[in-house]
Design a protein that fits this description.
Length: 219
């Protein structure tokens, strides 16, 4: 792998999706899935409107699970599988139906998330609010009802007790999560349903891969 062999160093910008599709002869979906796994592993970071860049080595913390957390992490993975199918479509519908007022409440949730990271306070509540606002923006009450039923169980970090990691590394991890949120909100604001679906799917796949890596790291 070019990143592991240092052919691509920290700060290096990766080729665009279109360039990768042409170079490797694969579909855009395959490229996006591969980038998603790299993001979840903390090897690359996508900056909206700029590109995807290689991260500093060791810059991304990995959650480490205590053996007692295995059952909770398995349950969290099952919920993430449901959310990938459910919320991918809800993001697309939100992009088509969201109004300025609803978008403002989404942005407020993201701002609260950022503030909570800075003050080391609860990030679960604004995280949940953001996803709930997207459900409301669909205009379909059944999306809302399912999300309300799941409640805080939707957020993987509420289902496990991770081994503590340094405060600065935890903040970096949480800000990466919120940047994924911002990419979803940006697509919804543009009214771009396809991009909103893609951003949501990648966010949830990243969450799944982060949790899977934590499982492997704790065994």
């Amino acid at each position: 792998m070019q990143i592991e062999s240092n052919e691509l160093r920290a700060g290096h910008r990766l080729a665009t999706e279109a360039e990768m599709v042409q170079r490797f002869g694969v579909s855009r979906t395959v490229v996006r899935e591969a980038l998603s796994r790299l993001q979840a592993a903390g090897l690359v970071e996508t900056r909206h409107g700029i590109g995807t860049f290689v991260c500093e080595a060791g810059a991304s913390p990995l959650l480490q699970l205590d053996p007692a957390d295995v059952a909770g992490s398995i349950d969290a993975l099952a919920i993430l599988e449901l959310r990938i199918s459910l919320e991918t479509e809800s993001a697309g519908l939100a992009a088509m139906r969201c109004d300025a007022s609803r978008l403002a409440t989404m942005r407020a949730a993201l701002a609260d998330f950022t503030q909570s990271v800075g003050t080391s306070t609860d990030t679960v509540s604004p995280d949940l609010r953001f996803h709930m606002e997207i459900a409301h923006a669909t205009g379909n009450r059944y999306f809302v009802e399912i999300m309300e039923h799941l409640g805080t169980r939707m957020i993987p970090r509420t289902r496990i007790t991770a081994t503590p990691i340094p405060r600065d590394q935890n903040a970096e991890y949480l800000m990466r999560v919120n940047r994924e949120h911002e990419q979803i909100a940006d697509a919804i604001e543009r009214g771009d349903a396809d991009s909103a679906r893609t951003a949501m799917r990648l966010h949830l796949i990243n969450s799944r891969e982060r949790l899977r890596r934590a499982q492997g790291n704790g065994t």
